[in-house]
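#structure-requests
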Amino acid sequence: MGPLVTTEWLAEQLGTSGLVVFDATKYLPNESKEGCTEFLRAHVPGARYFDIDLVADPDTDLPHMVPTPGRFAKLMTQLGVGNGSRVVFYDQKGLASAARGWWLMGLFGHDEAAVLDGGLPKWLKEGRPTEAGQPGAPSPATVAPGEFRPDFRASKLRGIGDVLRNVLTRDEQVLDARAAGRFTGAVPEPRAGMRSGHIPGSVSLPYTDLLNPDGTFRPAGEVRGRFQAAGVDGAKPLVTSCGSGVTACILTLGLRIAGFPEGAVYDGSWTEWGGRADTPIEVG
């Protein structure tokens, strides 16, 4: 299973042994919807809700930060995911937050994970069935026996200390997935009180540049071209960033699709960086 699956593939695979499907939708603070509420209205048959605010570190004020391996393992086991599971993530906006679930699985050593290309909008447009309400107990065929055992891959993660050092050394290339106006500081951040601008030395590559208007990924060659236009050549290690570590994972997924090394995700992203007074910023 590749990192991206089609609606046709998922429709054929639903209900097969070991397949777990998650709706991983997360709306921004300035959006008037809530992911779980919308999930209850309509979701892919058999899907469960993957709450990125729950599958997170509960002991920080920053949103949906990476949980400990123990917490991640416990929650995945409760959700019926084992080391033999195939896990597919989708979201309600085409592609915005599902890649966070995919990236978390890889961070904790599970490579049999994918994102549904085009998400729920494409599924609905094609007239495919949905369910409403709370999902029932997972089908015995899809529940993995035993517990999920994590294998944490620290190289896929960056913290604020790493990024502060990189501002001085420029050893790694930082790609910012936010919209261009947020990167330059021309548009205010959706989180109240947040400074505007970007990490010094980072490069703007809005995640939407990798997508077609319908929320599906552009062909691999086009995705590679977008990265190359942003200065990516594979020579420097890469770090992706965004508002809060969610759409940065779309750039990471895009790097995989384009054949570049995936690099790492700066988990705190701009919510952490722009929310502190001791971090340097650039505008324009």
